[in-house]
Write a structure and sequence with these properties.
The structure holds two protein chains of two kinds. Chain A is an alpha+beta fold. Chain A contains 14 helices and 21 strands. Chain A has three domains: 225 residues, no CATH class; 167 residues, no CATH class; 55 residues, no CATH class. In chain A, helix 3 packs across helix 7 and helix 7 crosses helix 10. Chain A starts with 15 loop residues before the first helix and ends with a helix. Among the domains of chain B are: 114 residues, ATPase, nucleotide binding domain (Nucleotidyltransferase, domain 5, 2-Layer Sandwich), CATH 3.30.420; 142 residues, Dna Topoisomerase Vi A Subunit, Chain: A, domain 2, CATH 3.40.1360; 111 residues, no CATH class; 65 residues, no CATH class. Classes of the chains: A alpha+beta, B alpha+beta.
């Protein structure tokens, strides 16, 4: 981790009112930066789905704050990544106008598509702060994103930490190299320009803040903010019962080889050690996770579980130590392939929740669909009319886990903050046609508080031409477990519509002109005994088609009868009733 | 000789708590009134409040020429779910678009968030076979038999309204129109709304949500407006009332009934228009309008005497006022931000050991600790009282005694002692924090729109606006602030200064090239024709309409558009080049100099705002009596660590005379609010009874 503050910067004597005002203001500034990024980005990945993160750092690269949306993998990996960036370019080697770029998986967000753009900002010749963002590029060359590569070199163009621009302008050689290597030169470069511009938007407002308050540096206030965040998290940790809490979870992995993820969380006084010893060794396939990314989702989980209200910054990382054996799936070594690392990393928060559940007084949600379902579509636009190619990355969410006091969220990602793009936008952008995008009955894990409902998505194409899909998806073999007596969510599936045959996942699948594929997303795990779910809520779920009559009976012990016409297209509340005697009998038998 | 009868103009705003009224004639304001809103029978409430005001001022209803009305009825109906039993007919496979939304977990860390609940439950969302592609081509014809069956079944199940929302209908509306025709035959009693009619714009979630909301509230609005019209007629008001829209224009009842969703937020829109009107009369066309009440504060940027507009917002937020937890509605609305900062906002010590204020609020019930009505958490008003900025004896004109000791004790135990600071420092911390929160919100709002907020004078209204406005202005570096006369009924004055206006929109995708000029001419012509027809219902003749043409553009491949004014055709420069230049200029202003190179520009959305003539209206009291001295006493008030406590004069606003100068520090009271003139401020009473406080720049700050 990054060093603790130097003694001269100890910030104990700064007026707490001012620290509070600056903290709030920095969050506004980061929202401005994020809005500018979204508004100027080109790829649907960034502009519609928000696969991004923005953050501000002090002069030494310590994260002071992050934007509200975005995704934890990027934010927290950027926080540790800045350490490498500052080490590569010490102060003397930077000048006003410089902008740095990298997508090195081991330096930043663990995937070659994730590009970090970091800008040092100067006042009167002195570096005072950094603004940075990390965005998922729609393409970075190499294999189209999947887990098929055997080494990182096959996964695309790797950019070491280097200067993208100086005061003199862009490095046109670098720009040409990037453009020549990627399938989506305009989108990839357009997003990078958006990152450069939005960093400046952030700095513009930070400078205004400094002017207003006569500040010539922000490091001392930054230290105060971090120290306070650290203290807040430590005090929350102290409220937990000390002890060692373990959990493990099996996930799909690649092909026939499933993976075991294991964790032991040790709570002692005001510190937490999260150790992933016992997890599977690193894979031959591109589902390996770099330690930066493991740390990112670990600190996300601890913060969400214990201190969602505490501002997230470098101070909040200090009380949490993360370990994973070198060469394991969660701390892979070069040149391991890493492109689909989120299909492993996204399980860590649910895994940690499972371990910590007994230690946290209010309880923690059941497991979610967890790994974000990402599909990458590539093909000829239209053989007869336009022989160019399209590339589209799209995202969709399954159900999230049932919660101690509420149902899980329907079609909402967890732990990611990435969102879906509108059907109309995707279809205007590419020849892709979605023939269905709707909720999937009986997908939610039954529980007193059931899991979130997932979705079914059917996709074909218009026009003619070669096309393919890489379905980077998981929980097809292993469903999201329930918690506290709740049942697991439904497994996902990925099939050819015409035959129902399962298609290979995390690999490129070539399709014919008339093919249609079906993606059924995994549901969230249930929380609490489903037989204790109030009968009227089960009835409502039946009327609205979230669950079937059969599930109501078998999973919830509620006998619901449908008395409307067999061919009715509109089925309303008056056509259903609960058979109370039968329900009593069913529920009484447990 | 016959006496000259003055034509009266009346503004009425039904808010959540109060109904505000004002009556004006050619000389200015002749009467203002405030009555509690009657939620049970809103039309009856309006009529009674109006009758009472007319009687008490001896005004004959027959002399009312224009009556402009705004209401929160639509907002309330959506929040309280009191609309029609509504169904959705949509493309098969897409019935859940309105429930799935954008699949966005809008708070990364909060595990308890909630999503907006659609107005139509899943049981009434029905898919029918049909499909139109993004190109407008029909991939699958509409199954009309299915439409007929569904319509009959919906009617049999007691459904009153159906929103017909098919994919890509903004490109090709044929299927939606055909579905409507079929339903009319099978179930003529069903009220049908088409998404291609209500909101013909891309992005299905927002379009479907808007269409549903519109048809959901339509019956309530129709009935209400019909009752109001006949009630006013019975009172002797000759002309039908005009309705205030959220875009800052007024319209005839018929248009409001067709697009009730456009009446959302009309009260706050009136407040912004009041700021525009007063600003214009004192020569300040650029303003930041700031309204602070008991629970929330609202901010709105005004440029060139026009409030900024936006085309999308959220209604009925279900989780902590968070963006993402409400139903999206796309309609032209005055662009305002609302933040949880008011007099009743709670102060606490947050997890970092720092003072935090809001958004939790004690509101007016039980209210601040000093109200003595059982409020426990410290509020902003408690801090203001302890600082001497408010007076325990003259609050609400002395109608309500405040408990200073209770406020003092609460701040001591809840904030000062835990932080180890004095009660005064704690109270100042609360006051300064809430001001900074509002200033921050204003800044983000401005920057996101490419505006520079620092140079803008503030325009303050609401019960707490004049008290906190100066602090907000200083935090923003504003040169001055203005407090209007009759600030308590500002929105109704805004209604009466609004022209008849309507916005019309069309999505038409195009690259920017030489052929665009003629395409644009055709689109604008038909949009203007449509707008003129809508405006003629408001009695505006074609000759009197002003059109503003704008267009939304972006670099090819981007997802967010920048709105620019369409250039006027000119012989010296090609129209598309002029448009291209305007776009690049606007882009640079918003996002700085790093713009993509060699990337072409595209046009998506075309808009026309059509307005009738602006009413000219004097917005000051027609009669006013200044006194020899307006000073009614002195009190000790705190003005920050630099100045400490000072003894300052307290003025009665109603006794100030035009041209009077009041150097800061000073306090000016009226029953509804207290204006604090800081030591760096200098107040002047303007000819129209508004008070302007000039602020010398605030040097240094926190060192």
């Amino acid at each position: 981790m990054i060093a603790t503050p130097a003694p001269g910067l100890a910030a104990a004597n700064i007026d707490p009112v001012i620290v509070g005002l600056v903290t709030n203001r920095l969050h506004s500034i980061l929202d401005e930066q994020q809005t500018a990024l979204i508004n100027t980005a080109f790829s649907p990945v960034v502009r519609e789905s928000y696969d991004l993160a923005c953050a501000v750092f002090d002069s030494r690269g310590r994260m002071i704050g992050q934007s509200a949306s975005g995704t934890p993998g990027h934010i927290n990996a950027m926080a540790t990544g800045m350490e490498h960036i500052v080490a590569r370019f010490p102060h003397g080697q930077l000048a006003d106008g410089d902008v740095l770029i990298t997508n090195d998986p081991w330096m930043t967000a663990g995937q070659i598509n994730d590009i970090t753009v970091a800008t040092p900002f100067f006042r009167e010749g002195r570096l005072v702060a950094w603004f940075a963002s990390c965005c998922h590029s729609p393409d970075i060359g190499g294999k189209i994103l999947s887990a098929e590569a055997r080494e990182v070199y096959e996964e695309g163009l790797r950019l070491p930490i280097m200067k993208l621009r100086t005061a003199a302008g862009p490095d046109t050689t670098l720009e040409e190299v990037i453009r020549a290597n990627v399938r989506t030169p305009d989108e990839t470069m357009g997003d990078i320009y958006a990152q450069v511009a939005s960093n400046r938007v952030g700095a513009r407002s930070l400078f205004a803040l400094m002017d207003e308050h006569g500040l010539d540096e922000i490091d001392s206030i930054a230290s105060a903010i971090m120290d306070r965040s650290e203290a807040a998290l430590r005090s929350r940790i102290t409220e937990l019962v000390d002890g060692r809490y373990s959990a493990s979870m099996e996930v799909d992995g690649f092909g026939e080889d499933s993976l075991l993820l294991a964790v032991t969380v040790t709570v002692e006084n005001d510190e937490i050690v999260v150790d992933y010893a016992g997890s599977s060794p690193q894979s031959k396939h591109g589902i390996n996770v770099v330690i930066n990314y493991t740390r990112a989702y670990t600190s996300f989980a601890i913060k969400a579980a214990l201190s969602p209200d505490v501002p997230h910054n470098e101070g909040a990382f200090r009380p949490v130590r993360t370990r994973a054996p070198e060469g394991s799936i969660l701390n892979c070594q070069e040149p391991a392939p890493v492109a689909s690392r989120h299909l492993v990393g996204h399980f860590l928060p649910s895994l940690i929740f499972q371990a910590l559940r007994p230690a946290v007084p209010g309880g923690l949600p059941a497991a979610s669909a967890d790994a974000l379902w990402m599909t990458v579509w590539r093909g000829v636009v239209d053989e007869d009319r336009e022989r160019s190619y399209f590339t589209l990355t799209s995202f969709g969410a399954g159900g999230s886990g049932g919660r101690p006091r509420k149902d899980g969220l329907t079609t909402t990602g967890f732990p990611t903050g990435v969102r879906a793009a509108p059907t109309e936008v995707l279809e205007a952008h590419t020849p892709i046609v979605q023939t269905a995008r709707e909720l999937l009955p009986d997908s939610a894990g039954p529980g007193t508080h059931r899991g979130g409902v997932s979705q079914v998505l059917r996709v074909r194409r218009r026009g003619k031409g070669t096309w393919s899909v890489n379905a980077n998806v998981d929980r097809v073999k292993f469903p999201a477990p329930g918690a506290a007596g709740g049942a697991p969510g439904r497994r996902g599936s990925f099939e050819r519509a015409s035959t129902g045959e399962p298609l290979p996942r995390k690999s490129q699948v070539f399709l014919g002109d008339d093919d249609e594929v079906i993606l059924r997303f995994p549901g969230g795990g249930g929380y609490g005994n489903p037989w204790e779910r109030p009968v009227d809520r089960v009835l409502d779920d039946v009327i609205d088609g979230y669950i079937t009559l059969e599930s109501a009976r078998d999973d919830y012990g509620v006998a619901v009868e449908y008395s409307g016409p067999a061919d009715a297209l509109v089925r309303t509340e008056r056509m259903y009733r609960v058979d109370e005697d039968e329900t009593d009998r069913l529920r009484g038998t447990r | 000789m016959t006496s000259v009868v003055k034509t009266m103009r009346v503004g009425i705003d039904i808010g959540g708590t109060f109904t505000d009224l004002s009556v004006l004639d050619d000389d200015g304001i002749v009467a203002v009134g405030k009555a509690l809103t009657t939620h049970g029978s809103p039309a009856q409430g309006v009529l009674e409040a109006l009758m009472e005001l007319l009687q008490s001022h001896d005004i004959d209803a027959a002399h009312i020429g224009t009556l402009v009305h705004g209401t929160t009825l639509v907002t309330n109906a959506l929040i309280e779910r009191r609309g029609a039993r509504t169904a959705l007919m949509t493309t098969e496979g897409f019935r859940d678009v309105v429930e799935m939304g954008r699949e966005h977990r809008y708070d990364l860390y909060d595990l308890d968030i909630e999503m907006p609940v659609p107005l139509v439950p899943r049981r009434l969302r029905i898919g029918v076979p049909e499909r139109i592609l993004a190109t407008g081509e029909v991939a699958e014809p509409l199954d009309e038999e299915r439409v007929a069956t569904v319509a009959a079944e919906l009617a049999a199940e007691g459904v009153e309204a159906v929103a017909v929302c098919f994919l890509h209908s903004h490109v090709n509306p044929e299927h939606e129109q055909r579905a409507r025709d079929v339903m009319r035959q099978v179930a003529p009693g069903l009220r049908v709304a088409l998404s291609s009619d209500v909101n013909p714009e891309v992005r299905e979630y927002e379009r479907f949500s808007t269409t549903i909301a519109n048809v959901y509230v339509q019956r309530i609005v129709e009935e209400y407006l019909a009752e109001l019209r006949s009630g006013l007629h019975a009172l002797g008001v000759r002309d039908a009332p005009m309705i205030m829209l959220s875009n800052g224009g007024v319209t005839a009842i018929e248009v409001a009934q067709r697009f009730p969703i456009r009446m959302l937020e009309s009260g706050p829109a009136g407040g912004a228009l009041g700021a525009v009107a007063v600003g214009r009369s004192i020569g300040e066309p650029d303003l930041l309008a700031f309204d602070m009440g008991g629970t929330t504060a609202k901010l709105c940027m005004i440029e060139g005497a026009e409030p900024l507009l936006t085309h999308t917002f959220e209604v009925s937020r279900v989780y902590k006022l968070r963006a993402g937890s409400g139903l999206p509605v796309r309609a032209p609305v005055i662009d305002m931000i609302e933040i949880g900062a008011g007099g009743g906002s709670n102060a606490r010590i947050n997890s970092l050991g720092l003072i935090a204020v809001g958004p939790e609020s004690s509101g007016s019930e039980p209210g601040p600790v000093c109200y003595g009505k059982g409020g426990v958490p410290v509020t902003v008003t408690d801090a203001d009282l302890v600082l001497g900025l408010l007076d325990a004896g003259s609050f609400l004109g002395g109608r309500m005694e405040l408990d200073l000791d209770a406020a003092h004790d609460a701040i001591r135990t809840q904030i000062a002692e835990p932080l180890g600071i004095s009660v005064t420092d704690a109270a100042w911390g609360i006051h300064a924090t809430v001001n900074a929160n509002m200033a921050d919100a204003a800044r983000v709002h401005a920057i996101e729109r490419g505006c520079d907020v620092d140079r803008l004078p503030l325009f303050v209204s609401g019960g707490n606006g004049p008290l906190h406005g100066p602090g907000v202005a200083q935090a923003l570096g504003s040169p001055s602030l203005t407090v209007p006369p009759a600030a308590g009924v500002l929105s109704t004055l805004g209604f009466l200064s609004a022209p008849p206006a309507i916005d019309v929109v069309r999505s038409h995708f195009s690259s920017v090239d030489e052929g665009l000029a003629s395409v644009a001419a055709g689109i604008y012509e038909s949009l203007e024709e449509e707008a003129a027809t809508l405006l003629s219902a408001s009695g505006v003749s074609h000759a009197n309409i002003t059109y503003v043409r704008t267009v939304e553009m972006r670099f090819e491949g981007q997802g967010t558009e920048v709105e620019v004014m369409a250039p006027t055709p000119h012989a010296d420069i090609r129209w598309d080049q002029a448009l291209n230049d305007r776009f690049h200029e606007a882009y640079r202003q918003r996002f700085g100099p790093v713009a993509p190179e060699r990337v072409p520009v595209e046009v998506l959305t075309w808009r026309v705002k059509a307005s009738g003539p602006e009413p000219s209206q004097a917005l000051h009291f027609a009669s006013h009596h200044a006194e020899r001295t307006a000073v009614k006493g002195t009190r000790r008030a705190y003005f920050g660590p630099e100045h400490g406590f000072q003894d300052v004069d307290v003025y009665d606003r109603h006794h100030l005379h035009s041209g009077q100068e009041i150097p800061g520090p000073a306090i000016v009271e009226e029953p509804e609010s207290t204006l604090v003139v800081p030591p760096e401020g200098h107040a002047t009473v303007l000819p129209n009874q508004a008070i302007r406080v000039a602020l010398t720049s605030h040097e240094g700050g926190w060192k």
